[in-house]
User: Which sequence fits this backbone?
């Protein structure tokens, strides 16, 4: 029988799970240009092309191992002098003396391969044409429906913008005037008859003055919020510059310098320089405002560049592009984490006692969204707060 | 949403432990490839198995070319499964390309993972100046050709995709049994996403400990690649297995289990 196997019109190969050749018939050795015992002891890697080796490791071996056989598998063998031989193979697996052996037969496919190539080529051409056609149709439909959506949204934006412009005018002019008058007349009252004034009236006046002061601050920060808009041209912004400019502005305005600010070398991103500075301003300002009086304030700014999908509002659309994730953490008083969404709302504050207006985090959220990014916050009461912002490195391509 | 993702990724949960151990299969296979390891871990851990969209018994309807031509899309599968099951302190076990998928996922969401076990990992398969990945571009093109030819047996594949051979469903079933991905197009995309990716720049961003299980004679992830990874992954342990080939968890499960258990017995180092 061995003689018959040796002259069988196909290559026969017995190998173990480690890929070691146990036996090969003469047909296979002749086909590959090896002498008598030359193949035994070598590994199958010697007779597989690089691509076949990958395919064997990723596809074929798992199949043989899981199903104990693999039929009609196309592989490329290589001869001793490095010529490719396309073959079709069948493999079975069996246990022999407690060891697993794999038995393969190889049938060369020179003629059939040419034929297959032609079929494959024709199929690719047909399929490409079909695919392009289908893709084009699908794209046209998507484009049409998205354009309509865009139109609707544009109309809404125009309306909202009109409202904002009027709103802004009211804040910056119409509201300022009565505030100014209240201030003027309260100070006249205080100045004129402070001696004669009853204690109760004096108290009431002081209350009016502080309420007016707050009203004035509120309108100013509302004005600032409305004015932060994305319709300016973006440039390449060095975030290190934004951070250091912001930090010195906070130091000056809060008259507070007793804190440590640690940051690695931040990247440059495309964005709006004034807004990015304002972003860091409010991050640092917020940390100072909510510092823990019992320990020195430490603000850590950590960052990582990673790829995220730029499409956040369109479902099933993906384009992974580079973003920078900036994590700003402090050792301040923190807050109950259940408020982590709430804190980004306008004029909402958790610590009522502090002097801020409650617009800082709303501004942070708006600026991040103007840049096509996201911001989240995690906090622990008594331990500190951590803001995570993810901003695209490039605005142009997104 | 919950059920959708669990069905989409054909998620299976087994085992009696509480700490989650998530097994992520590599290119060309599905969750079945882990079957020789599971018995060794199911008493102690909560085992989570899944198929990437496009592989195994996942929901092919959820396949999205844009998403899955990038390893970040596969990482999103991992993160969505973890978030759906609200997993924390996860031990991620990834084979082959899934190693880098796990690295990407752990960089994005360090809060989910405790440590990573990388079986036959490589951050870049193609040779680059000053780096030996093991392959040239043309080898990968040839692989794509080999794959295409091996799907030729599927009648659907010979005809343009639109002409579905619905009267012979047994052909599709057969192919599903043999290779773990049912659609040749998807398999090709996965191959491209795998072999043309270069994640060398991401390694230093990982802030989790990792075990590199390097086979002694692995064509797909040669020894130099294991060394490279060990050098660039800050908190990594490199173990050279006696096992040869690229699938030690299938060819040498006992050794793989021993190495994994030994690593898991070691304490998680505190990471700054």
Assistant:
């Amino acid at each position: 029988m061995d003689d018959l196997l040796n002259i069988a019109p196909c290559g026969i190969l017995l190998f173990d799970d480690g890929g070691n050749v146990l036996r090969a018939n003469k047909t296979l050795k002749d086909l590959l240009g090896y002498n008598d015992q030359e193949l035994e002891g070598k590994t199958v890697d010697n007779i597989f092309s690089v691509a076949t080796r990958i395919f064997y490791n990723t596809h074929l071996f798992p199949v043989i191992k899981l199903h104990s056989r693999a039929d009609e598998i196309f592989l490329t063998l290589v001869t001793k002098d490095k010529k490719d031989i396309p073959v079709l193979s069948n493999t079975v697996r069996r246990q022999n003396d407690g060891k697993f052996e794999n038995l393969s037969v190889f049938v060369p496919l020179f003629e059939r391969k040419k034929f297959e190539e032609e079929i494959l080529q024709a199929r690719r051409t047909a399929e490409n044409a079909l695919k392009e056609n289908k893709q084009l149709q699908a794209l046209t439909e998507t484009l049409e429906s998205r354009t309509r959506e865009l139109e609707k949204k544009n109309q809404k934006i125009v309306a909202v913008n009109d409202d904002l412009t009027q709103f802004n005018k009211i804040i910056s002019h119409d509201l300022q005037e009565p505030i100014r008058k209240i201030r003027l007349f309260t100070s006249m009252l205080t100045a004129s008859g402070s001696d004669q004034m009853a204690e109760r009236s004096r108290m009431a006046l002081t209350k009016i003055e502080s309420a007016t002061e707050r009203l004035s601050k509120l309108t100013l920060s509302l004005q600032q919020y409305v004015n932060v808009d994305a319709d300016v041209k973006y440039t390449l912004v060095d975030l290190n510059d934004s951070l250091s400019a912001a930090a010195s502005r906070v130091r000056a305005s809060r008259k507070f310098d007793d804190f440590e600010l640690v940051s690695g070398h931040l990247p440059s991103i495309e964005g709006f320089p004034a807004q990015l500075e304002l972003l860091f301003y409010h991050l640092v300002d917020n940390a100072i405002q909510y510092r823990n009086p019992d320990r020195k304030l430490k603000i850590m700014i950590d960052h990582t560049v990673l790829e995220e999908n730029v499409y956040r509002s369109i479902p099933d659309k993906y384009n992974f592009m580079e973003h920078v994730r900036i994590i700003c953490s402090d050792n301040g008083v923190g807050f109950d984490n259940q408020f982590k969404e709430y804190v980004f709302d306008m004029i909402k504050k958790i610590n009522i006692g502090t002097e801020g207006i409650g617009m800082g985090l709303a501004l942070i959220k708006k600026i991040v969204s103007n840049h096509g990014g996201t911001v989240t916050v995690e906090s622990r009461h008594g331990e500190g707060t951590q803001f995570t912002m993810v901003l695209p490195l490039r605005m142009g391509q997104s | 949403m919950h059920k959708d993702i669990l069905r989409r990724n054909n998620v299976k949960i087994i085992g009696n432990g509480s700490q989650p151990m998530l097994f992520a299969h590599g290119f060309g296979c599905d969750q079945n490839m882990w079957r020789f390891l599971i018995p060794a871990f199911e008493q102690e851990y909560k085992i989570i198995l899944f198929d990437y969209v496009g592989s195994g018994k996942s929901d092919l309807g959820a396949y999205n070319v844009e998403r899955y031509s990038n390893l970040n899309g596969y990482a999103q599968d991992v993160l969505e499964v973890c978030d759906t099951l609200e997993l924390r302190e996860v031990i991620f076990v990834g084979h082959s390309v899934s190693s880098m998928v796990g690295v990407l996922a752990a960089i994005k969401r360090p809060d989910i993972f405790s440590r990573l076990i990388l079986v036959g990992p490589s951050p870049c398969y193609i040779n680059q100046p000053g780096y030996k990945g093991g392959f040239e571009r043309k080898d990968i093109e040839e692989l794509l050709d080999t794959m295409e030819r091996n799907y030729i047996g599927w009648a659907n594949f010979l005809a343009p995709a639109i002409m579905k051979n619905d009267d012979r469903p047994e052909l599709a079933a057969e192919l599903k049994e043999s290779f773990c991905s049912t659609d040749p197009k998807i398999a090709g995309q996965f191959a491209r996403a795998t072999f043309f990716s270069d994640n060398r720049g991401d390694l230093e961003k990982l802030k989790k400990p990792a075990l590199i299980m390097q086979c002694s004679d692995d064509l797909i992830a040669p020894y130099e690649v294991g060394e490279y990874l060990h050098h660039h992954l800050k908190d990594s342990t490199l173990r050279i297995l006696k096992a040869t080939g690229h699938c030690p968890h299938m060819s040498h499960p006992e050794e793989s289990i021993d190495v994994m258990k030994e690593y898991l017995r070691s304490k998680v180092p505190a990471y700054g």
